[in-house]
Design brief:
300 residues; Dna Ligase, domain 1; 3 domains; 4 strands; elongated
């Protein structure tokens, strides 16, 4: 009987000691110093708890990576830590750090892609705002097998990188960024094409191509439906579209003014020399441009 009491007392004491030790690990400062400074850390996508512990150690936020890993596993946070850019106070407890990294409330790179940009312009924005390698990104946009793998009905991504504001995780790869942007484009285009009463007879790729020309031509948002109607009338009559932005695209230049000599450039994208639509989009159209080609202004 006495032995049973001793065992019970030992277990209780052991539990108390364990709770005290765990509390010490969790709630006391995780680093050696506490100077009320902060550190900004990048937690890459797919990083495991050991990798994250190493990042925190390198930034002076935890003294012992092993204790951080142990605490994360005991509390079940090891599979809930999220990628992002976090500002963490020096001297914060392990528990506070775990809660912050599990919340997903990190600062992502907010990248805005305006309507009407070409792939090389988009690549430059991504390089500046999201630290994406522009040459790798551009190579992907021209990779036909990659385009097919994303469900794009074309051999390149021109026109299918949807213009929007994206909260990109830090250290995303060019492939991941392209996948997000193309996925958004296909969803928006399919939603617009599914609206009742929209114009029929063109494939998605043809609609995106025409929408890109409308996007490039429109100086004001309200002009898009009228411009779409004008181009439909020219297509119906077998006329050339005669769109200046298709000429600058064919030339590979960026300027608002087109010279008479430019109109003779030999390219399937030059709608002053070729009838019908060009082979593909000339920029990334937004939802409004896609809506305009599906619902052009009547009787224009």
């Amino acid at each position: 009987m006495k032995r049973r009491h001793r065992i019970r007392r030992t277990l209780i004491l052991g539990s108390i000691v364990g709770v005290v030790l765990l509390s010490g690990i969790l709630f006391f400062p995780a680093s050696v110093t506490r100077n009320y400074q902060t550190r900004e850390v990048l937690i890459p996508r797919g990083a495991g708890v050991e990798t994250i512990a190493g990042i925190l150690k390198a930034n002076g936020l935890v003294k012992s990576p092993a204790l951080f890993v142990l605490a994360a596993r005991v509390l079940g946070h090891d599979r809930r830590l999220k990628a992002g850019r976090y500002t963490i106070p020096v001297g914060a407890s392990i528990y506070r750090i775990l809660r912050q990294l599990s919340s997903g409330m990190g600062k992502n790179d907010m990248v805005t892609i305006p309507e009407g940009l070409r792939t090389d312009e988009i690549a430059r924005i991504l390089a500046t705002q999201a630290k994406i390698d522009p040459s790798r990104f551009l190579a992907l946009t021209r990779d036909s097998s990659f385009a097919v793998s994303l469900g794009v009905p074309a051999d390149r991504l021109e026109g299918y990188l949807y213009p929007d504001t994206y909260p990109f995780y830090p250290l995303l790869s060019p492939e991941e960024v392209a996948r997000v942007m193309v996925g958004r484009a296909l969803r928006v285009f399919e939603e617009e094409m599914g609206l009742p009463g929209g114009r029929q007879g063109l494939t998605m790729h043809e609609l995106v191509t025409l929408a890109s020309i409308v996007e490039a031509e429109a100086a004001m948002p309200s002009e898009r439906p009228r411009i779409a109607a004008v181009f439909y009338n020219r297509l119906k009559k077998g006329m050339m579209l005669q769109s200046d932005p298709t000429v600058t695209y064919a030339l590979g230049i960026f300027r608002n003014r087109v010279f008479y000599s430019d109109l003779n450039v030999k390219s399937p994208y030059n709608t002053y020399r070729n009838r019908g639509l060009p082979p593909g989009p000339i920029c990334s159209p937004g939802r409004a441009a896609m809506h305009a080609v599906l619902f052009p202004l009547p009787d224009s």
